[in-house]
Design brief:
It is an enzyme of class 2 (transferase). The chain is of the alpha/beta class. It has ten helices and 22 strands. It folds into three domains: about 60 residues, Nucleic acid-binding proteins (OB fold (Dihydrolipoamide Acetyltransferase, E2P), Beta Barrel), CATH 2.40.50; about 190 residues, Vaccinia Virus protein VP39 (Rossmann fold, 3-Layer(aba) Sandwich); about 110 residues, OB fold (Dihydrolipoamide Acetyltransferase, E2P) (Beta Barrel), CATH 2.40.50.1070. The strands form four sheets. Strands 6-21-22-20-19-16-17-18 form an eight-stranded mixed β-sheet, with helices on both faces. Helix 9 crosses helix 10. It binds S-adenosylmethionine. The site of S-adenosylmethionine (SAM) has 18 residues, from strand 17. The site of S-adenosylmethionine has 18 residues, from strand 17.
Length: about 425
Amino acid sequence: MTDDPAGTLELTIGPVAHGGHCVARHEGRVIFVRHALPGEVVRARLTEHDDGASFWRADAVEVVQASPDRVNHPWPLADALLAAQRGASPVGGAEFGHIALAAQRKLKATVFSEQLHRLAGVDRDIEVEPVPGETPDGLRWRTRASFAVGPDGHLAMHAHRSNELIPVAEMPLAIDAINELQLWTVNFTGIQRVEVAVGSAGDPPLVLLVPAPGARRKQTAAVVHQIDGASVALWDPEKGTIERVKGKTWLAETVGSQTYRITGDGFWQIHRGAPGLLMDAVLGGLAIQPGERAADLYSGAGLFTAPIADAVGETGSVLAVEGSAGASRDAKRNLHGRTQVDIVQGKVDRVLRDRKPSLDVVVLDPPRAGAGQAAITEVTAAGPRAVGYVSCDPASFARDVGYFQQAGWELDTLRVFDLYPHTHHMESFAVLRPGRG
Ligand SMILES: C[S@@+](CC[C@H](N)C(=O)[O-])C[C@H]1O[C@@H](n2cnc3c(N)ncnc32)[C@H](O)[C@@H]1O
């Protein structure tokens, strides 16, 4: 299977593919290789290689012939080449860090246009736009970070598609306020997961602790005692409960003139520049008019609901639909006083099917899986003049564009943003309109 005693293969790397890897071939078999670049020759260690599998996976561990776009990885723990020298795996979450930022964006554009071509039959030249004010090194943008806890009680992160835990002592993609908490010095024995979030309104960070099964109160109290300068709460993701320990169980986020309350486990855009950028894209792309009937679907805590409500004014209306009970409660608080807004907790397709609203304009911001055919059928049946679709996955977005096309709609404006530097992820905003036919 391998062609050297160290268990590696020499591979010539082909094009980039969706998912953070490039495609190579070995004896007729496709291998998805991470931490490489198109055109390179690398030695790669197979990470998944079942005999019967239609493709294998591998990590580049040594570069034989480098691409001119290759740079030193800014995060040593996520650097696959350094990790291989230590006989370890890199942490997941910065799989494009070995690529110059401008070249990362070109690869993302290639992936986006390829998905759009393959799944929707649409050909577009795509430029991936950096976030205005992005740091030149593409670091310090995450306002949210999630950590596992290693067997020694210290913070750790997972290797890609693996249970392997790698101890961490910095998170260069995270904003300074997260690193300054120095959570790596805390002994988290009795905790299985740690989530940290920093709001933009100046409050202390919020640390959510998920206790390990059977953890004793004394253990969690000992952990909390070690955390300074942050609110702390215990979180049970199964039950969806958050128990305050010190400080607040929610964060305040300010975008423009609006401040939002975000409950500890509630969704908020991760990049510090994302909320403002996406809000401007949505409002600029849809030109919402006073008196219009709008819907904000997958509305979270109301990031887009508030400015849409202001745009339609008191003579218009906004139907905001959100599945999570906590985010929906936040939205009710955040939109309090805007009588034109109706916040409904429930699944988008079911709420639209039950209510059968007539709409002028719709914003869709679904999770990674996309909106899907049932929701899109209901959206197009509501008769809007335009849909603004915010997406964090080019594959589910392109599939959904296909569903809109089946209903006679067309893709109009399309913008793609580099909201997740050093990872393969990207965010897009599109305007779809009913076809003239
Ligand atoms: C990508 S977030 C967008 C939230 C909001 N637009 C924002 O930018 O802050 C997607 C939201 O959809 C919600 N959600 C997921 N599936 C849903 C469904 N089937 N129906 C309604 N909401 C859903 C999630 O709870 C989450 O708040």
